[in-house]
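Title: Request for sanity check on Ig-like domain-containing protein prediction

Description:
We are preparing a figure and want to confirm that the structure record we downloaded matches what your pipeline produces today. Could someone re-run it with the sequence below and paste the raw C-alpha cells into this thread? We only need the C-alpha cell string, no images.
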Amino acid sequence: NYFPMCLPAGPMVRPSVSLLQPSSEKLSGGPVTLACLLASYSPQGVEVRWEVDGTEVAEGVLNSLEEEKSSRYSSSSTLMLSQENWMNAEVFSCRVNHHDHRQAKSFRKNRCEG
C-alpha cells in the first residue's frame, strides 16, 4: 500500500518575528494599531495570539493570510486598541505558535510619554 507523505517537505524553519510599535504621531486620539510580522518560515501553519498586560485579547485582532514566496511563508497579525486601552496598559505581547515551537515578542511602554 502506498500512502502519500503528509509531512512537510524540507526543513522546519522558524518564523522571524517582529513587533511594530505605533509611531508617536499615530497616538493622537484615534485607535492605536500594533503589528506582529512573521517572516520566512516553513511549513505554513502559524497561530498568533495577543496579550495585553498578560491577558489574552481577541477583540480587535486581524490575522492576514499566509503568503508563500520561494517555499517560505510570511504573514502578519495586527491588534487595534482604543486610545483608552492603550493608555491604561503597560505590556503588549505577540505570541507565536509554529507547530511545536513557541516564541513571543513583547514591549513595555515607558510612562515618560508627554
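Thanks, this matches our download. The first strand starts at residue 16 and ends at 20.
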